Amino acid sequence: MAEYSPFMVFGASGLIGSSIWGKLPQSRRVGTFHKFPKNDLLPIDIQDKHAIRQFIQRVKPSIIWHAAALANVDWCETHRDECWAVNVSGTQNIVLAAKEVGAKLIFFSSDYIFDGKHGPYDEDSLPSPINLYGEAKLEAEQVICRELTDYLIIRVTVVYGKESQNKNFVIRLLQTLQQGKIIQVPIDQVGNPTYVDNLADAALELVCRKQRGIFNVAGSERMTRYAFACLAAQIFGLDSTKIIPVSTDELHQNARRPLNAGMNVEKTQSIITTPLLSPQEGLQRLKLQDHQII
Ligand SMILES: NC(=O)c1ccc[n+]([C@@H]2O[C@H](COP(=O)([O-])OP(=O)(O)OC[C@H]3O[C@@H](n4cnc5c(N)ncnc54)[C@H](OP(=O)(O)O)[C@@H]3O)[C@@H](O)[C@H]2O)c1
User: Fold this and answer.
1) At a CB cut-off of 8 Å and minimum separation 6, what does 268 contact?
2) Protein residues with CB under 6 Å of any ligand 1 atom
3) Quick one: pLDDT band at residue 164, thresholds 50, 70, 90?
4) Which atom of ligand 1 is nearest to 112's Cα?
5) Which SS3 state, helix, strand or coil, does residue 66 take?
6) What is the mean predicted confidence (pLDDT) over 41-66?
7) pLDDT tens-digit readout, 242-275
8) Where are its TM segments located (predicted)?
9) What is the distance between the alpha carbons of residues 25 and 196, in angstroms, rounded to a whole number?
10) Distance from C-alpha of 229 to C-alpha of 172, rounded to nearest angstrom
């Protein structure tokens, strides 16, 4: 990727952004945080159109990774204006500034743009979101497609791995089991668990191969959240009997969930040589790469 310089990462303090950030050359990367400061990252609020424009004009990146979002689906459901301001208007601010400097944009979207009736979804399946987060992600995708020609929309799902706030499903699950507590996990939500380090490698390869357009980047196999939780417990040597299978309805979450979701990754895998990992392979890689994970 030597001809691209510098690289900008919005949301470099988050789960996906920090993994991308860690793989970029130190001397040519500029990254941002919002509420959780991290070494070398600069503070910015993507809702601030003026600040975003100034920042991008100053750095003049050739590639912008946009992993900044309000990603808590239930929070978004009860905070419509904030969800829209960050996930849609914030994206628009980045898109317009990227257009001015001619930067390529890489945006992370979600299988939550679908209703979960007929998964797994292809890149050209018809979106039909059933919650506000999904509506906002879809609207952000549409802004990008309307305004830019050189973009990658990378749709991801059920991402897990090491992160500073330890808020992803696997880390919370492992910590809960380690404390000997029980945890309720839905039996009726299907998706492709995706190890963040594998996602970052695959996304970087798509960029290196100068791809444009929409790509599903996720683990190679779909499974229920419950089956995935039991697998994680087994791999990390924890007590899976503490995992209680429940229906999504029983969890009384604010936002509806697409149940039969997840994505078909054939298109992406036919282009990249990075193997998209199965849940088993991803969890084993996580265990190997990070002994301190729990
Ligand atoms: N994780 C998944 O399973 C998953 C699934 C589907 C799609 N996605 C998408 O992937 C992208 C990254 O998700 P993630 O899991 O890495 O989320 P995350 O861990 O919650 O990280 C979100 C990032 O956005 C930043 N941010 C939040 N509000 C901001 C604002 N107003 N201005 C600037 N930055 C702001 C956060 O900064 P601070 O933390 O410093 O506040 C953080 O760096 C999102 O677009 C999400 O919708 C994720």
Assistant:
1) 202, 206, 215, 216, 217, 276
2) 11, 13-17, 33-36, 44-47, 67-71, 86, 90, 108, 110, 137, 156-159, 163
3) confident
4) 6
5) strand
6) 97
7) 999 999 999 999 999 999 999 999 999 999 999 9
8) none
9) 18
10) 11
Question: Given this model, what pLDDT does residue 233 score?
Answer: 97
All domains in the chain, ordered by first residue: 7-164+195-219+261-277 (3.40.50.720)
Q: Are the beta carbons of 107 and 66 closer than 8 angstroms?
A: yes
Compute the distance from residue 69 Cα to the ligand 1 centre, in Å: 4
Residue nearest to atom 43 of ligand 1 (CA): 11
pLDDT digits (tens, 9 = 90+) for 86-98: 999 999 999 999 9
Tokens 């690289």 identify what position?
A: 7
The pLDDT mean for the chain works out to 96
pLDDT band at 4 (very low <50, low <70, confident <90, very high): very low
Distance 11 CA to ligand 1 centre (A): 6
Residue nearest to atom 5 of ligand 1 (CA): 157
State the pLDDT at residue 5: 67
| Closest approach atom of ligand 1 to CA 35 | 41
The minimum-distance atom of ligand 1 relative to the CA of 107 is 45
Residue 20, helix vs strand vs coil: helix
Cα of 239 to ligand 1 centre, how many Å?
A: 31
